[in-house]
Design a protein that fits this description.
single chain; alpha+beta; eight-stranded mixed sheet; 6 helices; 21% helix
Length: 331
């Protein structure tokens, strides 16, 4: 998981907490914990241990002896969407929860104590996207990040980013950087504007009544990106609404997607190459949730190649994507 530098702490008291606003944990609430554990255990090689008593039924997913995520049971009478929920670190959950309310969000669970796991709350931003807050004295969240089978990135998908970016920047003092809109040939790009300490944005993108394909904001702490906001406009699924999308690292995107479909999952968008790696959007079994899998090996595959080699590699990747998508969309 992308992390910002940690807050200063006294080494005699144990490890310092994560900087407030850093994604520190991700949790899935599923209708069937048994099905969820079987699915993700096979997909990522996770093992499972009991979670905090206060949250049970709940388990921690463990990879190579370290915690990476959590899975709990969604009560059948609770009308909540089944999805991965990111938790953001807080030094004072009660104060942060009150700020959520004052800024137009809601708190649906907590704040409450979870024993050794600390204090948490679950709420939603003004767009309706659900997220968690975590004040962790002992269990600091995801221990292992960056390798296959671990959460590495979180992205909010919403209608437009202007208002929700202000909400999160107020909540955790994020630095916000808006992606520059694609310029027409011969034209100048949008002017840069600044608001608040360390905050950067591009005029004209993500503001107004609608959102464009360039409506994308990166949230950073101390200059290090930790999450992103994406305004989908009319392309946002009406039935799903605003939601956070979690990215899990894999060693090979195509092999992982073959494994996912064999386990009953479904590919929503085939693999595509991005600046962060090869990414596919998927959903797990119908009674679980949705996520994305970036291929962590793409950078090493392309490093050192010439421009001609890169063009050939892109063409080859496009052919492979079409073949893979054709094969799986007809099965």
């Amino acid at each position: 998981m992308t992390e910002a530098p940690e807050s200063p702490g006294d080494s005699r008291r144990g490890p310092a907490r994560r900087r407030p606003g850093t994604p520190c944990w991700v949790s899935l609430m599923a209708h069937s914990m048994t099905t969820a554990q079987a699915f993700y255990g096979e997909l990522f090689g996770w093992e499972f241990r009991p979670g905090p008593d206060r949250l049970r039924p709940y388990v921690r997913a463990v990879l190579a002896g370290r915690d990476v995520a959590g899975i709990g049971r969604l009560p059948p009478d609770l009308p909540l969407p089944v999805a991965w929920t990111p938790y953001l670190a807080s030094d004072d959950v009660d104060l942060t929860a009150e700020t959520v309310r004052r800024c137009g969000g809601t708190i649906g669970v907590g704040p409450l104590e979870t024993g050794d796991a600390g204090r948490l709350a679950i709420g939603s931003d003004p767009s309706g996207a659900v997220f968690g807050l975590w004040q962790a004295p002992a269990h600091r969240g995801t221990d292992r990040g960056g390798g296959p089978g671990t959460p590495v990135w979180h992205e909010l998908h919403t209608f437009e980013t202007a208002n929700v970016a202000k909400f999160y920047a107020t909540l955790f003092d994020y630095e916000t950087e808006r992606r520059e809109p694609a310029a027409e040939p011969g034209s100048e790009s949008g002017a840069e504007s600044r608001s608040g300490a360390g905050s950067r944005s591009r005029a004209g993108a993500g503001s107004g009544a609608g959102a464009s394909r360039d409506d994308h904001v990166t949230l950073s702490l101390a200059g290090r990106p930790v999450a992103a906001l994406h305004g989908a406009g009319a392309e946002l699924p009406r039935a799903r609404g605003s939601h956070w999308l979690t990215y899990f690292a894999v060693a090979d995107a195509y092999a992982s997607l073959d494994r996912l479909t064999a386990l009953g999952g479904r590919v929503l968008a085939p693999p595509r190459d991005t600046g962060r790696g090869r990414v596919a959007t998927v959903t797990d079994r119908p009674d679980l949730a949705g996520s994305a899998v970036p291929d962590g090996q793409r950078r090493s595959e392309t490093t050192g190649s010439t421009s001609g080699d890169r063009a050939a590699a892109r063409a080859e990747a496009a052919v492979i994507r079409r073949r893979w998508w054709r094969r799986h969309s007809t099965s």
